[in-house]
Design goal:
Elements (H helix, E strand, L loop, with lengths): L13 E2 L6 E5 L5 H14 L6 E4 L2 E4 L3 E6 L5 E3 L2 E3 L6 H14 L5 E7 L6 E4 L12 E7 L2 E7 L5 E6 L4 E5 L2 H4 E5 L9 E7 L7
Antiparallel strand pairs: 1-2, 2-13, 3-4, 5-8, 6-7, 8-15, 9-14, 10-13, 10-15, 11-12, 11-14
Bound molecules: 2-oxoglutaric acid and fe (ii) ion.
GO molecular function: dioxygenase activity
Protein name: Alpha-ketoglutarate-dependent dioxygenase AlkB
InterPro entries: AlkB-like, AlkB-like_sf, ALKBH3, Oxoglu/Fe-dep_dioxygenase_dom
Length: 207
């Protein structure tokens, strides 16, 4: 692994104040120059797709580009899309291994999301597909534009917002997906692009 890409002194997690959840945030997982470089590399280097989902009987383009990488057996279904992973790239593997060392968790796949501008978004959801298991750990890296990441509790109106900085790492674990939804809202202000990498573990028994 290249030593110079990641800073080490400021790599500490803070716990976010969400009840019945385990959410940790590291603002400087990757330093800002390296994050900008990695954004450029991944924007041209990953096999981005414009997927559509069926909504009320019509095919609707999802408001972002996506790419799915991982171990060959990490098959994933999402809103009716069946995703077969592409083989790990060196960059994705390096980030994965770095997160694994920090979190002591293993991941076998990553969903990459590219929010091209403020119009791209992700609606309210929980990452609660059966193949993720009941208490999934999801590690999410932000590169590029800062975007607000919103949490909304399922059983009352509680919300929590955190602006995710370029180079940051957000880890959602424990019962987070069970009690909370999350999403990235659209913005009318002109925004630059943001690439998000969400590392997951697809359980073999569920596929
Ligand atoms: O872009 C993000 O930070 C969130 C992505 C997300 O929630 C997902 O891929 O499930
Ligand atoms: Fe999610």
């Amino acid at each position: 692994m290249q030593q110079d890409l990641f800073s080490s002194s400021t790599r500490t997690f803070e716990s976010l104040p969400l009840a019945d959840a385990d959410v940790r945030y590291m603002s400087h997982f990757i330093d800002s120059d390296a994050a900008a470089q990695l954004y450029q590399k991944l924007s041209t280097g990953l096999a981005w797709r414009q997927d559509s989902i069926k909504l009320f009987g019509r095919q609707v383009k999802i408001p972002r580009l996506q790419a799915w990488y991982g171990d060959a057996d990490a098959q994933y279904s999402y809103s009716g899309l069946h995703m077969t992973p592409m083989a790990w790239t060196d960059d994705l593997l390096r980030v994965k291994q770095d997160i694994e060392a920090l979190t002591q968790c293993q991941f076998n796949s990553v969903l990459a999301n590219w929010y091209r501008d403020g119009q791209d978004s992700m609606g309210w959801h929980s990452d609660n597909e059966p193949e993720l298991g009941p208490y999934p750990t999801i590690a999410s890296v932000t590169l590029g534009q800062v975007r607000d990441f919103d949490f909304k509790r399922k059983d009352n109106a509680q919300t929590y917002r955190i602006p995710l900085q370029s180079g940051s790492l957000l880890v959602m674990a424990g019962a987070t997906q069970r009690y909370w939804q999350h999403g990235i809202t659209k913005r009318t202000a002109p925004l630059m692009g943001r690439i998000n990498l969400t590392f997951r573990t697809i359980l073999a028994s569920a596929t």
